[in-house]
Structure formats: C-alpha cells, structure tokens
Amino acid sequence: MADLCLGSAQFGMHYGITNRYGRPKSKEVREMLIYAENEGVKYIDTAQAYGDSEVIIGENINRKSSLSIITKIPSLYDALSGNDIFNVLDSIFKSSLIRLCSSKIDGLLLHEASDFLHPNSSALLDWLESLVERKLVNKIGVSIYESFELEYLPIEKLNLIQLPISLFDQRLLFDGTISALKNQGIKIFARSIFMQGIILNESNRLPDFFSKDFIQHHSKFLEVLENDSLNSLEATFIFLERIESLDAFILGVNNMTELKSIINTWKKFKDGKFEFDKTLSNWHWNRKSDIDPRLWTH
To answer: Which residues are CB-neighbours of 258 under 8 A, at least 6 positions away?
Structure first.
C-alpha cells in the first residue's frame, strides 16, 4: 500500500482555487505535523516556490520527527549559465536547509525538468549526485507535468518523480508513463490527486473558467458516486490504490479538519475495511485546459 505525503503549499501561501480558508496559523501547522506523524504519514513535501512554507515547517516540526522532508528548488537554468556553478547551486540548496532548520533531507527535486535541457546539464547532474554522496539528501529527482519531459531526463540517475494523477487526469497512466518509471525502479509520488480540491467540491462551487462540459462531467461523477454510496474522497483512494506502481500520495490540506477526514478515509483502506468492485478509470477528462492548473485562467 502506498504511503502518505503531507503537502505544504498551503502552509506558505494562499494556495488552491477551492481554498476558502487561507493559510493555517503556525499553531495549526504544528498540530497537523504532529497528527500526521502519529497517524502514519511518512513524508512532507515542500518547495522554495511555496512562499515561506519551508520556514513554517522548520519552525514547527519536531527535531526528532520521523517525517521525511522532500523539497523542490525552482529553475536553475540561469545558475547553470554563470560562473562557479557548483557553489552557486550549493548555496541555493543550502538556503532550503537553513529554512527547514535541518542539516539534511530525504529528497530534493527540480521543480523544472527543463533544467536538463541546459548545455551544462551534466554539471547539474554531477551536483545532484554529489548531494547524495555528501549525505545531504537520500533521493534526487524531478517534478513533471507531461510524459515528453522524460525524454530529456537522465532517468537512470534519478530516484524520485512527482507527477499529476487524479480521477479526472489519468494521462500518465494511460500512456504508460507510470509503469515505465516503475520498471526503472523509480519511486513515484502522485500529486494533484484532488486537483486543488476540485474533485472534493460540489459542482456549483467550481470556478466559471472551467468549461460547461467539464462541470457537467463533474456533476455526473458526483451523481454516480451518490448512487454507489461513495463520496469523492473514498473514490479517489479506491482509484489510487488500484495503481500498484505508486509509492506515495501527496495530500494538499487547508486545515486540521481536512487532514483528519482524509487520513480517516485512508485508514479504511489500510485496514482492509473497504471494498468496491466497479471501475473508476472512465472518469478521465481529455480537455487539457480543464485538468492542467497551468492553463487555468483565474
């Protein structure tokens, strides 16, 4: 069974198009970190691009916490074009360690896979591998959106890939990307599993930049689930748990109430107390402008 990874974009900025709560207070973040660890969450995912999320985590995580930290660094393309590349990259990475109040972390990912298109990409890879050799990180990898990004990645050198997958966005499942990565021995973390909360919300709460067809699709989805006595959170876990290649699910939450609801649902599956024999693969939506947040016009 896949592990859980607590997402933290909401800790550092007002994130998510369905987020009506804003950022949680520092005290609530501390409570969520403790609760997540106690309930078996294994990882916490953050990034330099998530506002001051790294700082919030560093200030509130227990120094003896068993939560493994994974962070992402923004595009290094310009840094690869300058002088003293190794030290510049080190400085960028170590700024994360300072904010996280940690001497090492479990994983470091590039936020932009296109960094490997730079002429000096070999230096980038050498530097990433040096982090592992120096025991500053255990795993290196990238965050991707599309399968074509794998074409210019040194896959054989990477340990971890984050990618989007949800009931409405199954592209990387259907095109074989997920199974191909697993065959390479790479850990796969599923992100955007709730599509910034879209899947968990009522259709009448969706922003009006979504197509009418997509809103109707979402409405039909909820209607069918209700007939099957399921909610969208349960359906999400049923769908994800059937993808054996996934190693972890990244959970984006706005507050403790949401975190408890998600973990309580997850525990039903972990304890083998949930069965459902219908397929959920038919809820994929083909229109990219509705499922890729980079194209949302909010």
So the answer is: none
Exposed, middle or buried, 126 (CB in 10 Å: 0-12/13-18/19+)? middle
- Residue 220: pLDDT above 90? yes
Cα within 13 Å of Cα(191), Cβ side: 22
Give every CB contact of residue 55 below 8 A, 6+ residues apart in sequence. 12, 99
pTM of the model: 0.94
pLDDT tens by residue, 278-298:
788 899 999 999 999 988 875
The predicted structure's pLDDT at residue 66: 95
Determine the Cα angle at 270 with ends 162 and 225, to 5°.
Answer: 80
Give the β-pairing of 43-45 and 68-73. parallel
CA–CA distances in Å: residue 8 to residues 47, 177, 296: 8, 26, 21
CA distances from 136 to 42, 47, 79, 94, 236 (A): 19, 16, 20, 9, 34
Higher pLDDT, 296 or 277: 296
| Residue 19 clears pLDDT 70, i.e. is over it | no
Q: Over the range 248-259, which residues count as b (16 or more CB within 10 Å of their CB) and which as e? A: bbbbbbbbeebb
d(CA 96, CA 251): 21
